[in-house]
Write a structure and sequence with these properties.
Layout: H1 27-34, E1 50-53, H2 62-72, E2 76-80, H3 82-85, H4 91-100, E3 104-109, H5 120-126, H6 135-152, E4 156-159, H7 171-188, E5 193-197, H8 203-213, E6 218-222, H9 224-229, H10 235-242, E7 246-251, E8 253-255, E9 265-267, H11 276-286, E10 292-294, H12 302-318
Parallel strand pairs: 1-2, 1-10, 2-3, 3-4, 4-5, 5-6, 6-7, 7-10
Antiparallel strand pairs: 8-9
Helix pairs in contact: 1-12, 2-4, 2-12, 6-7, 8-10, 10-11
Length: 325
């Protein structure tokens, strides 16, 4: 193990073996503490972890991130890598603060330069790897983040590829797949899997792209809310279609706009249109044993919203109860 890597836990590692942290708690351990004997003989998730996306907590410093993760009641996180890559956060200090708080980083997130989420039309132009103007910078950042992920002991990094054109004959699709291949390869060189965020295309298009791309280290980060926010299909059906490729799940909820090219609304988990009981039925049936990272990108009470989301997800993920709508 490289010096300075993050600690591991009893969760099935999506990364290289890591030094254990103090008192780690994954889904099975949390439910046993809340209700001893509530475990079913064959629970859905025996080793995967429930955590939070670091950017959801809007931390200004590593210490603030550690405090806010702790405030959610969770001990696992997906970490935005760019603050470390550009030197805004020192790697050693970040590791120390998280380790001291008993927080384990399970995966990373790669951001893209100059993305404009003000409208669906603007993110279609600027999102992911699609923009010619930002491709050189994004390619360089991907290579740096791949090395950073390896240094941190991570084996999974997610990102938005950009709107993937539907037709194989589309020139832009060929360009985008070539770029995706380059990014996938720089991560593969470091032993890291990449997971493409869902939502900016239908499940059918994403399946076709994965087949055409043909990279063993490329999977899916499934975000059910994004399917609704972008108007790209029903989340439960999309999860079933993409199940063999899912490497991580973002726990997030939303409502459709009902108007083409207009954003839906992100809402707290349990208040949107994701049918969480049906969602986890698919997870159970398909044997999707991956980490669940709660993501909250709206609202002013994010810690409270994340705590509430965790309370809903835990029993559903373990098949030991229900969730309030």
């Amino acid at each position: 193990m490289l010096p300075g890597t993050l600690g591991s836990s009893k969760c099935t590692p999506p990364s290289r073996p890591r030094k254990p942290l103090a008192a780690p708690r994954c889904l099975t351990e949390v439910v046993e503490l809340l209700d001893p004997g509530a475990m079913t003989p064959d629970p859905l998730v025996t080793t995967a972890c429930l955590g939070v996306c670091s950017w959801s907590l809007q931390p200004a410093t590593p210490a603030e991130l550690a405090r806010r993760v702790t405030a959610t009641g969770l001990q696992h996180a997906q970490l935005a890598l760019d603050p470390l890559r550009v030197g805004a956060w020192r790697v050693g200090r970040t590791l120390d603060r998280l380790r001291d708080a008993g927080v384990e980083v399970r995966s990373g997130m790669l951001g893209m330069r100059d993305e404009d989420y003000s409208t669906i039309a603007s993110i279609r132009r600027t999102g992911g790897l699609r923009s010619d103007a930002t491709w050189p910078a994004n390619r360089a950042a991907a290579a740096q983040n791949a090395k950073l992920a390896a240094r941190l002991g991570l084996r999974l990094v997610s990102f938005h590829a950009g709107f993937l054109p539907h037709e194989r004959t589309d020139r832009e699709r060929a360009t985008l797949l070539e770029r995706l291949g380059e990014v996938a390869d720089v991560f593969a060189d470091e032993g890291v899997t990449v997971a493409l965020e869902t939502g900016q295309e239908t499940a059918e298009v994403l399946l076709d792209v994965l087949a055409e791309l043909g990279r063993a280290n490329v999977g899916v980060n499934f975000d059910p809310a994004n399917m609704l926010l972008y108007g790209m299909g029903e989340p439960v059906a999309a999860l079933a279609a993409l199940a063999p490729h899912v490497r991580q799940i973002h726990v997030k909820d939303a409502r459709r706009s009902g108007v083409p090219e207009q954003w839906g609304e992100e809402v707290p988990v349990g208040q949107g249109e994701v049918d969480w009981r049906a969602f986890f039925d698919v997870v159970r049936r398909e044997g999707i044993d991956v980490d669940l990272m709660i993501e909250r990108e709206a609202g002013t009470q994010r810690v409270d919203d994340i705590r509430a989301a965790a309370a809903i997800v835990r029993p559903l993920a373990l098949g030991v109860g229900g969730a309030s709508a």
